[in-house]
Amino acid sequence: MLNVKLEPRTWPGRSNAVATEHLSAGSLIMSCEALATILLPPEKGRRCDFCHTLPRRLQKCSGCASYFYCSTICQELQWQAHHKKVCKRFGKYTSSMAFQALAPHEKLDALLLSHLIAHLDSGVGAINDTLSSITSLLPGPVDPASLPIVYSSSRLSESVLKDIYSRFGNNNFVLHSHLTTFGHGVFPLASRYFNHSCLPNAAAKYVLSPFKQPTMEVVALREIASEEEVCLPYLDPALLQSRQQIFQLSYGFECRCSSCIFFENVGPIPDPPTLQAEREDLALRLMQFMKATPRDGLTLTTNSTSFPPDLLAVFHETFITYLSETFTNASHDGRYPTAIHFGQVLLALYRLIYPPNYPQLGMHLLEMAKTYWNRIISENVDTTVEQVKSECRVHLDEAKAILHVLGSEGDEEGPLTEITTLERLLTDT
Fold it and tell me: Which pTM was predicted?
């Protein structure tokens, strides 16, 4: 599935992925299967090492006792893909001094690189075409040191291995289910096509099915005109102070999207207040501003002069973290009025940072709806139940609208199921 084409671009990067036709929100733009993946350590023994689903039971590889599968089908598929090259060598490799000396993220890269090299060396698919799809990607800005892999390839030289690894840091994707990371993956086609924007018009999701490696689907978040560039976020756009440094160190470019230009124009973000009363006042003034002039991340960036300078501290990453942690902790502890207050402030801030239909917006709205519901069923409701139910429905309806744009993804039990359950509970009460 491909609803984009590449067009030449002078800077940054080499090309643009532009829509070949008008796309509505929720349209599938691209679908591509992973070339190689690796699970994060906490997910090992919990997910199938091939398809990454969450089965009730897993069977352990009898050869290495380190890989787990939901079925003999997945085990055979991964055996043919790369595990036959890895299995008997795995225990000795992971206990070696060379591997143990690696940092945690380097260990993941080393294992993912081993999977990829074994896949190429096993002759699964046309090796020249696959290798070309990887080496056609731009290398990272820093020449990395060589990583030890499970075995020495008979078909690929050391220089080729280094060329491949030099493209890992700025091209591989984080695999996630309902915004929770569970692994990393190599998707050369998607890496080749999509540039970054902090106000993207598309997002990647991962479809998990038995007997298949994870599939990436790129979905339109809003209407995209024919010939308009399609962009993905390479990281969470809410990393407002650190994202430019990450772009330069990890990807070798300076982002010039409208969001980054907005923050360049307004200048350094001041530190937020540390006193609780002053933080509360800052949050209150943000809510008053948003009530008087509702806007989202797209409209904010078109008119930076209209944003009050005395509110700029709300964009500081520490203030965002403060709001998020306070909302989460209060909701968890049953302090629902406090949770709702801070959740509303965080929602207002998210609307300024993220573009419409961004998944994090939908997930936060769902968490807000769940908090309202928990307040309804608690014994400490100090207002009318119908008023709280009305607020719950408003947040739930918007969460549903946003998350349905992205559609089903990740594990089976997720936010769309939670929305259906909460809708039924609201109807029955």
Answer: 0.93
